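thought: fold this chain, then report.
action: predict
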Amino acid sequence: MTRLLTLLLLLGQMSVHAAEAPAVAPPLFDKQGRTLGPPLSERVTDYEIDARLDPSTQRLTGQETITWRNRSAEPQSTLWFHLYWNAFKNDRSTFYREAKMMGGVRDEDASSPAFPEREPDEWGSSDVKAIRVKGGAELLPTLRFEHPDDDNTEDQTVFTVTLPEPVPPGGRVTLEVHWEARVPRVIARAGVSKSGFYLMGQWFPKLGVLEVPPERGATSPRWNCHQYHSASEYYADFGTYDVRLTVPKTMKVGATGVLVERRDNPDNTTTLRYHQDDVHDFAWTASENFEVLEDVFRSPGLPEVGLTVLVDRKHLRSGPQLIEAAKASLEHFGRWWSPWPYPHLTLVAPPTDGIAAGGMEYPTFITAVGRAEPGEPKDFLIWQTVVHEFGHNYWQGLLASNEFEEPWLDEGINSYGTYKLCLAEDVRVHPEQFFPSPLRGLVGPLFSIDWDERERMRGTPQPRENSPILQASWKYRSRGDYFHNSYDRTQVTLHALEQLVGEETMARILRTYVERWKFRHPRSEDFFAVANEVSGQDLGWFFDTFFRGTGTLDYAVGSLSCEQRAGKKGLFDDGQGGLLLVEREPGVESKADAVNRCEVQVSRLGDIRVPVDVKVTFDDGTTQEAHWKGQERWTRLIFEPTGKEIQQVELRGINALDANPTNDTRTKGMSGHVAVSLFGWTTYVSQLLSTLASLLF
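observation:
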């Protein structure tokens, strides 16, 4: 447990005892998912959806009533919509074109000439059958497919409609939409598996975001509605969702929000109604093979949260760890950043053939990973996915960042939060957990490595980055480039920021950022401004260098040499105009009086320049530090300790980003390079695990 967490928990307990606070904080929502007080968000877009799933045809039919409010100061006559499932309609969509160029998608490799490989009934699509102003004009004749990000006229993931009359500033319009969809074979967070598991994400016609000044740097009202890219996620406005789902009676269902009504129908179907205020998306799942577990999170000073776990029955043994990981996330993140406000959280662990839908986040609804034989006491994959996906309920859920344009604001900050929580909960990588139980006893001794998150982060910095962190998701060179910059590189960069400003200051930066920007749409500059304000520093150089730049940070201890000097020899002025002859031969003084002259050379091997602290440790355990601005290519530092020798030199600072940490230390008579082979092995395995985790996240 980190010192910061301990302090926060103690403070929380002290305040509870002092004020005799209730067992849990007052709720912000009632049992129907409705806000008890004033709206928490602006509620720009409200949805009433009625959908029916027919598993025999893998078809979804739906109708929705959408009420949209014009927040801008200008009339709006054109509305922009997402139609995400058309990304899976054919291999000419922007999604599949980019997937081919970038090496695949999170769950499929594109190296095969046959990519994407689909049977005729495995493609997905979404087709708007009718769209009209409520009680007024039919808009379908005005529907136009748009491609704002490229020139792909065959992409149908964004469309516009033109209203007969503009929506005035502050005015509202209500639309009625009818659509039909083919559910794709599970891919990229959505679809159906062969075992009959359904994950419905981005499944309905959904309005884009009209950004208004000064939101996200807008100088005039502008629609932000990107196509579905292979390396991107989503962006939407807050509102209210009231959704009715009709499925076969035999199916168990989980969804965003709170289940408020259940009705059995004469045709052997069931209609379930879910409601949630102040969210910006809605997802759901259905399967006949779910086992359902229920629990409640309660902790002094935090709101009570009901927990529902839907886990494939083959992975039922994962249930307790899924629940414990969720409770730990609610506890730590609620105290570090802000109490999670919603009354219910649904966790889904897909079956093995639906793993492409695992490791995904939606408001109050996440998908994780289940295992037939989870590792004990804390299975790395289960805890990592639960912690990571629930963490998204802050950076993507409460703070509705634009994941298309600035993926690091969600994925990267969340990866840093995952790292902090896994350290606090002592979630460790035990490689034998990745093998089936019959092999664990045989293979385990070969992998007697016990890594926490610090070891897993090693090796993330690269000699030179291909792309900056701050970049639109679809503009990265490859799938790996996107994952590296949006996830693990940002995680380590934020860890370096913590090294620079201190752990407690970093915690205040994140807490202030959440409180100031929740239920809004922040951008990178907003995070940077909070960091400058809270730290009391101008950190522009840090953000320019590490978020906008691609240079290399590599400092090294070049050499360490010492020689013993018994005393002075020669002619010395006494300071009074006379001369004193000093003749002292080596060895005439005791060792305790001898002066050791030690020279340390420190080099800057990369092009990034940062301040460096040089820490020397003497043979009696004492230490001394010297500061180097790090501007030149190298510097020489002289230490003259009396009666002791330097045993080790260590470079300190924001060295989490150093591309070659093996040269950051040197011991007398031995270079840090002796650890290269072990470091290389550690780096290789940690990167392999990071890649596996990123494919799930």
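thought: worth noting. Residues 1-21, 671-688, 690-697 have pLDDT under 50 and may be disordered.
final: tokens above.
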